[in-house]
Amino acid sequence: MKLVLLSGGSGKRLWPLSNDARSKQFLKVLENQNGEFQSMVERVWGQLGNVGLADSAVIATSKMQVDMIQSQLGKDVPIIIEPMRRDTFPAIALASVYFYSVQGINLKEVVVVLPVDPYVEDRFFDRVKDLEETVLKSGADLALIGVEPTYPSTKYGYIVPASKTCDNSYLKVSHFTEKPTEEKAAELIEQGALWNCGVFAFKLDFIISLLQEKGIPIQYNELLKQYEKLPKISFDYEVVEKTEQIVVLPYDGHWKDLGTWNTLTEEMAKSQIGIGVIADSENTHLINELELPVVVLGVSNAIVAASPDGILVSDKAASQKIKELVNDFDQRPMYEERRWGWYRVLDYTKLEDGREVITKRIGITAGKNLSYQMHHHRIEVWNIIKGEGEFAFNGEIRPVRPGDVLEIPAGAKHGIKAITDLEFIEVQTGTQLIEEDIVRIYMTWEEVEENSGYESK
């Protein structure tokens, strides 16, 4: 059995902590058994390891999220990278074609697809294991997991089986109902309907044959070239709703989609993260990523969140409306985690002559390094403010420490490695302050040292 974890989305529902680069699954607001903060993706990956499924899993994600995943799960985590975001049908197609044409997986192999961020107990993933046998035994094209509802939710879709469940065995699916009214949801529950948690399984041959019928390439490299031509549509609409032979496995344990501030704060161990004070308030949470204190006084049932991307003050019950309010914000991410550490945008200015100036505070974790790179259209000035490291510049490596100022003209090859946790202020000035103006020469520091004409001091 192979698992595909879908990691996508822009994370607007949990703005301002989430953005295009840091979706909800990367927010470190939950706690592990040691009392340390962890993200949803760290929690789920750990649970897969607990039940012996991590070695069978890959994460399908966009280029923008690769650094974040490697930062939180390690550089060796298996990843399938979408050339661009195209919704869940193209992402699942790409993963399936990768299994088929690159890994040479047998067409009879069962593939299970699930979100990367469900909030569940470990035994939910034991139920995921049962999908393999269900697909093979039932002869169905698709097998789903349906959660037994605990209340008539209007936020979830429902799977309506052909009959009520009497045990843990699979049932044939009659139809689906998307986000009904509370009254309709109650009726559906009486009929034995289950919450649709976005988990489904199929034999690899089912998807490969479907792609062939649609004229979609089944060779990985060719599909990458044509990826932008694939329909931007969900797997539910493109495949599930058009498939007749579907069964569902009931799951009677705890399951929650932490997709809004209202649901996320219910699972947070602490009511406050970051600098600030909550006083004379009930059921209020404060998450502050800024270095300025935030005081919340006499405001109950609220979420207050502050980050470099913005500030939110919202009644928890109304927080599900955030996405539609901020959807039109056209702003680059002001905070990102990368494989080597993090950066925070401090200031952005556009000059009258067309040049731009971006000031960042950059943190590199001890032992990690920025790639050895160059730029055609910008100059950079780095002011080291914390820690010690090694700076590579046009073939020479030298030590750096707080107080050092490093000037990097356009065309100069440069990189830096942190010996201890390292921070510096970077000022970029140029006409194209974009990712495309980064020419990466070497990714590892070993390559930098091997190709340097000077000895590291």
Automatic annotation (TrEMBL):
One of its GO terms (molecular function) is mannose-1-phosphate guanylyltransferase (GTP) activity. It is an enzyme of class 5 (isomerase). This is Mannose-6-phosphate isomerase. It comes from the Bacteria. Residues 4-270 form the Nucleotidyl transferase domain. Its EC number is 5.3.1.8. One of its GO terms (biological process) is GDP-mannose biosynthetic process. Residues 338-441 form the Mannose-6-phosphate isomerase type II C-terminal domain. InterPro entries: Man6P_isomerase-2_C, Mannose-6P_isomerase_type2, NTP_transferase_dom, Nucleotide-diphossugar_trans, RmlC-like_jellyroll, RmlC_Cupin_sf. The lineage of its organism: Bacteria, Bacillati, Bacillota, Bacilli, Bacillales. SUPFAM superfamilies: Nucleotide-diphospho-sugar transferases, RmlC-like cupins. Gene3D superfamilies: Jelly Rolls, Spore Coat Polysaccharide Biosynthesis Protein SpsA, Chain A. Keywords: Isomerase.
